[in-house]
Amino acid sequence: METIARPKNSTSDGRALRQALGKFATGVAIVTTRDGEERDYGMTINSFTSVSLAPPLVLWSVSRSAPSYPVFTTTENFVISVLGEEQENISNRFAGSVADKFAGVRCGRSSMGPLFIDGALAVFECSVHERYEGGDHLILVGHVENYSCGNGRALVFHDGWYGTLQKAGSQ
Length: 171
Prior knowledge:
Blueprint (H helix, E strand, L loop, with lengths): L13 H8 L4 E2 L1 E6 L5 E6 L3 E5 L2 E8 L5 H4 L4 E6 L5 H8 L11 E3 L5 E3 L4 E13 L2 E13 L5 E4 L2 E4 L7
Antiparallel strand pairs: 1-11, 2-3, 2-6, 4-5, 5-10, 6-9, 7-8, 9-10, 11-12
């Protein structure tokens, strides 16, 4: 493994920076919400992380160029569904520009209103705790009001590809 002594690329090279950031493997999730007219919105995210256990807080971010950006600037709640290894097609659907992202996807309605993805490994129902400006993204911190957790292997994204995790040393 090559050791990097100092950065070799400038952050002004957006494509190279994105490639370097892609070296960090992340989980894949769908975030959903509803607008004031009870229309459902959803998108694929990999910016999801825990912030605090007490109080229970999670964080994710949405690009200002995302079609659903405006609704996330005003929503009071959202749901995050953490996808399992067999849900790659759902991730692709919600990452694309399909008119009705929910068509053909098994969902349930959370107690807070937004949909959740049926069969997700974990589901977090959140109220918006804070919003922060973050360059070309809006950072949303959610207070976890309810959650559920199942079993299975997580869908992960690394270096532009989907995969799953395997314990070190196992076959």
